[in-house]
Fold this protein.
Amino acid sequence: MKVTVYSAKKYDQQAFSRWADPKLDFHYLELKLSEETVSLAADSAAICAFVNDDLSAPVLTALQAQGVRMIALRCAGFNNVDLDAAKALGIQVARVPAYSPEAVAEHTVGMMLALNRKLHKAYNRVRDDNFALDGLLGFNMHGKTVGLIGTGRIGKATARILLGFGCTLLCHDLYEDAELKQLGARYVPLPELYQQSHIISLHCPLTPETRYLINVDSLAQMKENVMLINTSRGGLIDTKAVINALKSRKIGYLGLDVYEQEADLFFENLSEMVIDDDVFKRLLTFPNVLITGHQAFFTEEAMQQISQITSDNLVAFDKGTASGNELC
Ligand code: NAD
């Protein structure tokens, strides 16, 4: 089966050639999927897409007209897919629901530690032979209250690490996790989580309900100097409201692995380009902001699981069987 892989980087090709079924005929394109690039998937029965590919109704309609019958997402989130349109067009969409949630959880906690202990500054200082400690004062994680919004696979893996540090955990989710409660986490309404938490970390999906969950109102309820971490999806945060909260010192630390306009920036080397996103560039001016370019998932273990499960989804479709990972 011919599969056109959009947004394909060298590391994607390496992972598929190591771990995917060799019978699948992958054609790699560096380009993102969009209305302009959809024709490049001609003759493919399936395409493989990633987080910033455009899977809106017009693109899906064009894919279907070319004979594409299956979309294999090589990610967990599917907020970029118009599932109703895919269903109506008879296109199957499958994803990789779980791949090493620890990869994202460990990056999340890594961001907390880096911001708290100012490792990003210390790294540069020591390279400059500057061994002064002024400005590097941190706080103990032990005993701090961390609010987790979303306690699915990644939220739960993050919770386990933080419990090891001796943090108090306040959680919010549509469903309570019995195991987390047994471990000592407490589920609370969002206002209580906002008011009590020293650190707030987002692990819920981007849906119409969670879009701009972090906004002027929710920020107003948080502690002064709060640490906010988002490794989930950029659209959970109203970035302009967050910039104002950084300026007023309401937010003391901000860690982002995702950004609402990341599709124009992330996964590319733009170091020779002029970036005209003034909101993003303003974020980079704050000394207490740490941004990574959607790399939380990027471990050897996760890449192995992503390519194996994507391959299994494609093979199941080709055989006419169910993988269990179908969204429609
Ligand atoms: P999951 O489905 O296992 O868990 C999501 C949890 O969020 C569920 O428990 C769900 O009930 C909860 N939830 C849904 N709506 C909510 C709401 N309105 N309020 C509170 N909780 C709500 O998903 P996961 O595997 O833990 O992934 C979480 C998110 O992380 C994904 O949606 C994806 O966007 C993001 N992600 C990011 C990366 C990265 O590299 N940065 C990698 C993988 C996933």
Remarks:
- The pocket of nicotinamide-adenine-dinucleotide is lined by residues 76-77, 101, 104, 149-155, 172-175, 203-207, 209-210, 231-233, 257-258, 294, 296-297 (CB under 6 Å).
- The chain has a mean pLDDT of 97.
